[in-house]
Amino acid sequence: LSLDPAGARADARVLIDAALPELDTEALGRAWRVVGLSHGHDSAPQEAVQALERARGIFARAGLARWEGVATCDLATLYGNQLGRTAVAIELFEQALQRAAQVGSAADEGRALALLGSLLGRIERFDDAERLLRRAVDLLADVGDATASRTALSNLGYLLLLRGRYADARSALERVLAED
């Protein structure tokens, strides 16, 4: 998806357009999610929002709470990173966290916390950002998501650098390097 957004989008559209009757609801929602994420990678945020909202609606109507939370987290990331709508992003992250708690997904909770923590760091809510990033690192390490854990740890290291806590930042960043 990140290497060839247009190709991923084209493949997902084939599934949606040509094979729609054969797709189960989860597959249909996931295909729309790929369309949305691919638009986000191509810096087309409005198209991304439309596709991700469609995916989220499909998941919600089908009672697929975990996938609804994942799509909500995707939307929050898009609103926070590409559209600059921080208040909307925070509200969506809170909804994604509620879904993760509802379905008991520590992995989804960790990813949402990491993304929300990074957003809060950008708006200089440093204490909240640090708390969320630390929690995300722990959750993601516990569930074995090494890639997401390293990303959260890198973001924590950067945040600590911004706060002038150089020894703590170095420690966090050395952990990232040791895990590679």
Description:
With 180 residues, this protein is mostly helical. The chain is 82% helix and 0% strand. The chain has nine helices and no strands. The chain has helices spanning 5-18, 25-41, 45-61, 65-81, 86-103, 106-122, 126-142, 146-162, 166-179. α3 (45-61) runs antiparallel to α4. The longest helix has 18 residues, at 86-103. The protein is elongated and about 55 Å long.
Give unreliable regions as ranges.
Answer: none
Class per helix and strand makeup: mainly alpha
The profile of the biggest β sheet is: none
Query: How many individual helices?
Result: 9
The ordered string of helix (H) and strand (E) elements is HHHHHHHHH
Morphology: elongated
In whole angstroms, the N-to-C terminal distance is 22 Å
**How much of the residues is beta strand, in percent?**
under 5%
Kindly state the percentage of residues in helix. Answer: over 70%
Task: Based on the model shown, name its key terms.
180 residues
Topology at a glance:
Layout: H1 5-18, H2 25-41, H3 45-61, H4 65-81, H5 86-103, H6 106-122, H7 126-142, H8 146-162, H9 166-179
Short description:
With 180 residues, this protein is an all-alpha fold. The chain is 82% helix and 0% strand. The protein has nine helices and no strands.
